[in-house]
Amino acid sequence: MVDLRRQGTGSARDIVYAALREQILSLALKPGTSLSENETSLKFQVSRTPVRESFMKLAQEGLMQVLPQRGTFVSLIDTALVEEARFMREHLECAVAELACGSFREDALLRLETNLTMQQAALAGQDDGEMFELDEQFHRILFEGCGKSHTWNTLNGLTVHLNRSRRLMLANAHDWRHLYEQHRRMADAIIAKDAAGARLLMKQHLTLNIADQAELRIQYPNYFKD
Question: Domains of the chain (ranges plus CATH)?
């Protein structure tokens, strides 16, 4: 049972939505999991209305699937949407990496260095959840440091299937040194104002996910859409 008083401010619908979204993206609610309005309303101690509205909003984002006469389920990971999101991120983030080499705020560079230090701590503690959040933060800082925060926010809303796939990859691997090392080299290229190098590093970084998808589908066949 969840005490909404501890979940922060906002409407019941917003709190339920945010909590369920985080559970889906973190894989606490696994792909294919069945959900009911009654059980969820009891869990959050709210009426069925905010639960129903949360389900509808999550379905619009592609994180839930409502099947008539069958029920509501956490959506399976759609590999076609994973690839489409990776394609968008590759092209936008390569451009941002190149842009950062010409103009990147000093405070953002300091935040990038702090982030990298925290990544090393996550590596030492083998905390895949923390590493995922720091990975996301690293890329967000690149956009913010170039004055492209709105672009990041828009992009991030279109990558939910990719993010679940990446989260699964991190939880499965437990060896993220290559991830940290790629981030470190990207930061160094930005400091050196090496636009071509930063762009190439970002492209290599984001294309790694292609090979990972095939392996994940073999290990977790029930998590992915056919």
Answer: 4-74 (1.10.10.10), 79-223 (1.20.120.530)
